[in-house]
Amino acid sequence: MPKFNPEEYEEKSFEPVPAGNYPFEVVDAVEDTSKAGNEMIVMELAVDVGRENPLTMKYVNLVFHKNCYFVINAFCQSTGLTDKWDAGQLDAEDCFGVSGTVKIVPGPEKDDGRQFMEVDQFVTERYAEQPKSKQGKAKQHYEDVKQTANAGGFSPADDIPF
Fold it and tell me: Which pTM was predicted?
């Protein structure tokens, strides 16, 4: 049974994040299928809101349906992946580690009164207020791990790398 010391608990004040444009980095991206049967990329974003830790935005989806192409286009413009947009081909691996600017806003209030921030849109170059880089820390870490694994004879097709 897990144990903890309640005397170590420190109550912290919570200040909501103001709505606005913030730099982000994609820290996880996987390909999946929507409930409607459309291909999609499900991403997790680390959003720099100017605090000690980034705000984690999970389940940010790029759905590959013609009615949702505007979101994919804005994502590609915001992250510098316009070559992928032009080619009509975007994979989860292309998304991992890229950074750009995202507008976050308060989401709908829950039944219990809680309210969470959500992604409103990916901010394209003409609306961007924050500088961005094409390759962030997560992408570099991924490349380092891949290089180390390949040096040890590990193949990504292997189930277990040992």
Answer: 0.71
